[in-house]
Write a sequence for this structure.
């Protein structure tokens, strides 16, 4: 069952390097070969992530110093419970979406080609020329640039998840940011502006993060996540004045990452970026890319900073922003008339859940239940519960949102619109898509069984145990809101007939030339369905997830 | 983000141990870096012109990297009070170099995007008929 | 007495409740991908699963009720909390009802939906719905109950929305709103309670630690009780949380039957019984002082529902309000806390199910065969559809509580229980409700048998399924698969009334449960 240790460590390096190499290699290939390479790479990453997950589940933290250098300048890869879980989720979602993109090249974006006799020979650089010469140009579906960008993005994601120090975390984040911006830009004309806006935000967030990292280094003298955490704990124990710099660093890091994760009120960029991205890209952005920032945020708050009482104001500010995100995101989602912006706003709302735990981190006493007869709570359960709850919510969101965006994008490609009113009755022709949307809605609302339910349960119980009842109120409001907006999105698709039995007319599915016609109705629909099914089935993993998170936990 | 910049400035002030004290060279650099970053950020938020924005972003980047360089000099100072050597921390320098490379990469991407956006003005409609249909005349869109 | 249960190796015992749940789940999974036109295969899977389940439950009854066997299955779910499925008499009682009526409703639905679209989806969700109901009945702790309770909410939504018309989508949306709200209240109650006492395993006389909680912290305990019962009351359609039920009657007739008799409404009531008996325990509940308010609420709901039913002209709506009224008998019975009344309440769980399912089957038949939707359209239907009308009459008499129907047994138990309790006024509620029941059911019965058909719609005379009889041009022949289930349930209504004293008749099992709870 357990692979040998050396092999597992090889896997740790390989999950970063293999997608990176594949990304570089794919640039040299034609578009059909890129698809094959992409699917092979995703299978490889899936296979390489499995031994890591198994190893970590058995209770070991994996550590690998690449190239023989030790930190600070060497590259240290480390996989603990948190890493393994995010790695696994990314591998699953990434592999499914890769298969979808390979099956439906049209979903990878669109490119502008001059209407010459052989449009395929025109390369990207010729756009301008084609335009200035007033040659007729046209949008063509499918953009082979998807593959190198996405594989590079995947490499960056994995680098963030297994990075043992803040420097490599930064590099990984940048790789993710750069490729994500370019991926958005694949969506065509109206996506470019969104991509540019995203670019400004991404760079700004990275700069703030970088200054924060530098501050941490200047205080602790190390970039290693665990070492710096220990150094800060020692400083705190000594009562050193330098803690102000740590607080400032955390402020900058949190702000930078909040920009990247689109926490209200910094969410403006997310809506156009996620909703105008191509069908195969939106799920990756929403399910994976923002998770990288969340992951780093959890690392910074739990592993690096530890529960410093000085951070209390910041924690409350961020939790307040999280609450605002849940409310505002939901209200805005309810007001959307198009499917993809609605789902994008739902992401904004869901992001809020991941910030609610911060005040709990600083106040992990089971005060509310102390002295109660029969309470079964153990010491330290609040911290573990709050983190597991948040991670479960984030992972559940990854699966569910990927499924939802895939289905929505698929519908949009089918009917070339995502106006909800115009999609009325689409469920008749595509029951499987609607079923996937329903399954992911279960996960996003947090109904049992789903990972979302487990997450809400864990978060709610920790909140009650610590006496933070406000979290309960926020969770309830968020649940009701999410049910409302998801129902708004899904219910019209279910219309079968009008009351007077007249047939319902759907917008005509576009006549795609040749092969893409088949791909829209064929097996590609299985991808969102599979993810939706996983959303529900992972509902059984609550206990396992909590156990895995204990591996390498900071408490 | 204004908040961000002001906290950044405040932090640098705290860092520099300012307020009436004579500033060392390192502290001057910290302050300068913060000022440059803040100015860049403000400009970036206020301007509508895309190229100006991109340049402002670069200014912000330079400001932040200056802050880090100043920190590097400082931590080398504190690590080596004798003052021998050039007095720059290698790790933070590496951070700055990486930051520069990445900023350049982003700037390049941004420039490409801006060129495309401005070379291909917005269509009147929000939802242009998507891909795959019969070839579209760009004139029709302009 | 050596039962077959003892011959099963010990390690297989836990599988029994799991198999029960998986049986209908497997059926659902097998049905979903079936193509629309594989009618026979779908029917075969459905009926096999349903019949197997009925047989399994019948085989379990003696072992569980007489010998006290309690097969139990558990699997880890959340930290410190397991998913527990346990067979106990009350669970078996409810599961027996649901699987028997699942079988009959499936037969009915097979006929009812013949020729309509989306049958695989319908029967898939239908089976999931039964999975959830059986899961609810076998749940061994509050969190397991909650999981299946929410599952039920989700899987009934597509059933209510099945026709896909704006009206049914609206009804389904309102249903979902109510049910999710209620589910959320239950969830908060469960979270709160489990923070105090852990996983809240159901146990006769109250879950572990709850009695102590009531003694030490009465205010949170009271709030938790209100949250739980309030949340469950939504599905149980307790006043003022009943608004969704009359709307949901736009669903196909088999779904209405399922909703009213087995699944949703009953799940709510069953949950209230569980909370009262096996979470708080009647003594702790009495200490909290919640029983009398609950009793008053139930009594009011009974009268209110009956009064509203009287005002409805549409048959299905009248039946819907009648359900609101009848289901509260169960709450009324258990809130009176003595063996007689509790027996009456619990037995009504089954009796009301059988009678109401009969009425909905018949209402569906009337609607399908002679397009009769309102009471006035039923005039003279007795001559056209004598068997259906007879079944309807039996069901209606049962609802009124006339001997020798099942309804009489329930009401008799409740009435004697009321006299023996501290609340003899409840008897007047029963009398008043019975009078109202008579007032809204007897005119229907009268219209069926004694009123002259005004003008027979010529279309219905020769419409598809209902071939006219040569002898009597008015007489129509009902489709067998619709008629037979209705006749069976009508027969059962009479049978459980007449044979109430047989061993393992619902009444006896209910008495056994009541005695177990109340000592």
């Amino acid at each position: 069952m357990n692979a040998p240790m050396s092999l597992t460590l090889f896997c740790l390096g390989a999950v970063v390097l293999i997608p990176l190499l594949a990304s570089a290699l794919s640039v040299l290939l034609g578009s059909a070969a890129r698809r094959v390479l992409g699917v092979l790479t995703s299978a490889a990453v899936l296979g390489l992530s499995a031994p890591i997950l198994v190893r970590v589940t058995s209770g070991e933290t994996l550590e690998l110093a690449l190239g023989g250098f030790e930190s600070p300048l060497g590259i240290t890869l480390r996989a603990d419970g948190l890493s393994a879980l995010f790695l696994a989720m990314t591998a699953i979602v990434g592999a499914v979406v890769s298969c979808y993109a390979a099956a439906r090249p049209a979903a990878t974006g669109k490119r502008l080609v001059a209407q010459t006799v052989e449009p395929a020979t025109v390369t990207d650089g010729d756009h301008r020329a084609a335009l200035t010469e007033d040659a007729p140009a046209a949008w063509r579906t499918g953009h082979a640039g998807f593959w190198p960008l996405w594989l590079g993005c995947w490499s960056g994601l994995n680098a963030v998840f297994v990075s043992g120090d803040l420097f490599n975390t930064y590099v990984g984040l940048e790789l993710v940011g750069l490729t994500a911006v370019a991926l958005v830009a694949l969506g065509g004309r109206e996506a470019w502006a969104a991509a540019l806006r995203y670019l400004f935000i991404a760079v700004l967030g990275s700069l703030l993060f970088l200054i924060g990292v530098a501050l941490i280094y200047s205080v602790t003298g190390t970039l290693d996540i665990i070492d710096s955490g220990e150094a800060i704990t020692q400083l705190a124990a000594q009562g050193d004045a330098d803690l102000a710099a740590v607080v400032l660093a955390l402020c900058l890091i949190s702000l930078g990452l909040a920009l990247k994760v689109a926490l209200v009120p910094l969410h403006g960029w997310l809506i156009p970026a996620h909703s105008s991205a191509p069908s195969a890209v939106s799920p990756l952005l929403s399910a994976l890319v923002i998770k990288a920032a969340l992951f780093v945020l959890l690392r910074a708050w739990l592993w690096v900073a530890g529960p410093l009482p000085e951070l209390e104001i910041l924690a409350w500010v961020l939790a307040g922003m999280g609450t605002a995100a849940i409310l505002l995101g939901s209200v805005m989602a309810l007001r959307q008339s198009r499917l993809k912006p609605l789902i994008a706003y739902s992401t904004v709302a869901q992001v809020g859940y991941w910030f609610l735990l911060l005040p709990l981190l600083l106040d992990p006493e089971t005060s509310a239940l102390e002295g109660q007869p029969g309470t079964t709570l153990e010491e330290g359960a609040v911290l573990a519960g709050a983190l597991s709850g948040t991670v479960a919510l984030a992972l559940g969101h990854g699966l569910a949102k990927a499924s939802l965006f895939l289905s929505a994008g698929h519908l949009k490609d089918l009917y070339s619109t995502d106006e909800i009113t115009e999609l009325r009755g689409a469920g008749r022709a595509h029951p499987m898509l609607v079923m996937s949307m329903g399954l992911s809605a279960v996960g996003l609302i947090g109904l049992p069984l789903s990972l979302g339910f487990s997450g809400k349960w864990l978060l709610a119980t920790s909140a009650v145990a610590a006496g933070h009842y406000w979290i309960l109120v926020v969770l309830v409001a968020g649940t009701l809101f999410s049910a409302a907006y998801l129902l708004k999105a899904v219910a019209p698709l279910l219309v079968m007939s009008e009351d007077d039995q007249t047939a319902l007319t759907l917008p005509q599915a576009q006549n795609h030339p040749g092969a893409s016609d088949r791909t829209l109705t064929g097996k590609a629909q299985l991808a969102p369905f599979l993810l939706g099914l996983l959303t529900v089935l992972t509902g059984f993993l609550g206990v396992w997830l909590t156990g895995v998170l204990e591996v390498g936990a900071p408490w | 983000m204004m908040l961000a910049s002001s906290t950044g400035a405040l932090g640098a002030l705290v860092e520099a141990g300012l307020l009436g004290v004579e500033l060392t060279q390192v502290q001057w650099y910290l302050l300068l870096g913060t000022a440059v970053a803040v100015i860049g950020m403000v400009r970036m938020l206020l301007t509508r012109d895309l190229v100006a924005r991109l340049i402002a972003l670069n200014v912000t980047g330079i400001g932040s990297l200056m802050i880090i360089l100043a920190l590097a000099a400082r931590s080398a100072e504190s690590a080596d009070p004798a003052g021998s050597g050039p007095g720059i921390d290698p790790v933070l320098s590496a951070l700055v170099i990486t930051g520069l490379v990445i900023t350049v990469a982003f700037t390049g991407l941004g420039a490409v995007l801006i060129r495309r956006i401005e070379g291909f003005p917005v269509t009147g409609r929000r939802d242009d008929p998507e891909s795959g249909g019969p070839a579209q005349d760009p004139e029709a869109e302009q | 007495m050596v039962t077959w249960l003892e011959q099963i190796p010990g390690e297989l015992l836990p599988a029994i409740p799991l198999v029960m749940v998986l049986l209908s789940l497997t059926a659902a999974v097998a049905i979903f991908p079936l193509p629309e036109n594989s009618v026979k295969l779908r029917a075969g899977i459905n009926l096999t699963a349903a019949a197997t389940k009925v047989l399994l439950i019948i085989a379990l009854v003696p072992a569980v009720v007489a010998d006290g066997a309690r097969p139990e299955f558990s699997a880890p779910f959340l930290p410190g909390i397991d998913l527990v499925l346990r067979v106990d008499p009350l669970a078996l009682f409810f599961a027996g009802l649901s699987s028997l009526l699942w079988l009959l409703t499936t037969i009915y639905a097979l006929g009812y939906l013949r020729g309509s679209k989306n049958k695989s989806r319908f029967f898939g969700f239908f089976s999931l719905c039964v999975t959830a109901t059986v899961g609810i009945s076998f749940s061994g702790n509050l969190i397991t109950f909650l999981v299946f309770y929410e599952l039920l909410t989700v899987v009934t939504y597509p059933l209510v929305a099945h026709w896909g018309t704006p009206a049914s989508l609206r009804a389904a949306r309102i249903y979902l709103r109510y049910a999710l709200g209620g589910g959320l209240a239950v969830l908060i109650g469960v979270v709160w309670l489990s923070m105090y006492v852990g996983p809240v395993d159901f146990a006769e006389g109250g879950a572990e630690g709850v009695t102590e909680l009531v003694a030490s912290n009465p205010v949170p305990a009271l709030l938790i009780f209100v949250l739980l019962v309030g949340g469950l009351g939504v599905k149980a359609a307790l006043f003022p949380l009943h608004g969704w039920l009359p709307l949901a009657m736009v669903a196909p007739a088999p779904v209405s039957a399922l909703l009213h008799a087995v699944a949703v409404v009953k799940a709510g009531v069953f949950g209230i019984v569980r909370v009262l008996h096996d979470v708080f325990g009647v003594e702790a509940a009495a200490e909290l002082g919640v029983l009398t308010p609950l009793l008053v609420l139930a009594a009011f709901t009974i009268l209110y529902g009956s009064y509203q039913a009287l005002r409805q002209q549409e048959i299905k709506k009248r039946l819907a309000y009648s359900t609101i009224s009848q289901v509260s008998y169960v709450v009324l019975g258990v809130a009176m806390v003595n063996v007689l009344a509790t027996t009456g309440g619990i037995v009504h769980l089954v009796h009301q199910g059988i009678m109401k399912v009969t009425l909905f089957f018949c209402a569906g038949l009337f609607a399908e065969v002679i397009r009769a939707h309102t009471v006035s359209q039923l005039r003279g239907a007795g001559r056209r559809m004598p068997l259906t009308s007879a079944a309807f009459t039996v069901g209606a008499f049962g609802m009124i509580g006339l001997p020798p129907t099942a309804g009489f047994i329930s009401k008799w138990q409740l009435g004697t229980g009321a006299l023996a309790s501290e609340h003899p006024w409840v008897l007047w509620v029963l009398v008043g409700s019975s009078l109202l029941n008579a007032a809204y059911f007897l005119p229907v019965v009268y219209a069926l048998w004694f009123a002259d058909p005004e003008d027979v719609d010529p279309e219905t005379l020769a419409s598809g399924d209902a071939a006219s009889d040569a002898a009597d041009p008015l007489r129509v022949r009902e489709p067998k698969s619709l008629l037979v289930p209705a006749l069976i349930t009508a027969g059962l209504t009479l049978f459980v009334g007449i044979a109430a004293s047989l061993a393992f008749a619902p009444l006896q099992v209910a008495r056994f449960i009541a005695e177990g709870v109340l000592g």
User: Anything to note?
Assistant: Chains B and C do not touch (no CB pair under 8 Å).
